[in-house]
Amino acid sequence: MREINEAAIKAHADRRFRSEYDYALFEYYRSAKVLAFLDGAGVEMKGHVLDAGCGGGGMPLSFAEEADRVVAIDLVDRFRDAGTRLAAERSLGNLDFLQADGTALPFRTASFDAVLSHAVIEHVADARRYLHECRRVLKPGGWMYLSTAPYLSFAGAHLPRLKVPVPLHLLVGRRAAFASFVWLARHAPWTLREPADENSFIKLARAGVRKHDDLLELVRVERLRGQMAEAGFTIVREHLHVTRTFRDLPGPLSRWLRESRLTQDIVIGNIEYVVKVPSVA
What we know:
The two termini are about 35 Å apart. This protein has 2 domains: about 5-150 and about 215-275, Vaccinia Virus protein VP39 (Rossmann fold); about 160-205, no CATH class. Strand 4 (about 110-120), helix 5 and strand 5 form a beta-alpha-beta unit. With about 280 residues, it is α/β, with parallel strands linked by helices. The radius of gyration is 19 Å and the shape is globular. It has helices at about 5-15, 20-40, 60-65, 85-90, 125-135, 155, 170, 175-185, 200-205, 220-230, 245, 250-260, 265; strands at about 50, 70-75, 95-100, 110-120, 140-150, 235-240, 270-275. The model has no long low-confidence stretch (mean pLDDT about 90). It has a 7-stranded mixed sheet with strand order 3-2-1-4-5-7-6, sandwiched between helices. The chain has 13 helices and 7 strands.
């Protein structure tokens, strides 16, 4: 999937919550943007590739169209009814799905040319161990793509939005904000902006199930940079995407908000990296 088709991405985004299959299709079309980012970093999708947290399995489909072999893992086998079905529909024989733990990868050291981690690390209980495992399975000179979002931003908080745009997680802290949204989903869902079918808080509340917080790593830009360096990675390309609200501010102010340690974790809605491991001399 090389063509960035904004109309197709939007169309599939609008119905991505209907099923795991629909969400995987959305990820498949959106993966063109990841491939464009990799092109900008000067790395190629070739050889043996590991998707270290594939979810429903949409993105590794497009990676398999580029690379020799792709292995896609996830802690929960969400890919069983989505990714495997899509791979069969596209006759992709070089893509394997496995249920595995990203913090204890069942692969030999130096067995992959590239590792991809899209919106995964924030859901990992031990981010340092996860990064070290990704580093371990990479060959010398191999690279890793990683995307995530700071937990203080609206996108990175993984919380519903109120119809009245109040940053509850910044005002009362994450634990209290999470508990508040659980209560609102059960007793006052009309206060929340997202439709019920796009809001896991409301879905679970209607099913009588209490939602648990799956944001396990509280990502911050500076901490993530340090964790990647500690794992032995060198940054090749970094893109800090400022949210639309702050991006529309005058250029110098927007840049200051993005770069300042005081504000960057609030105004950045997405982070993308390409990092590399040293080559053999």
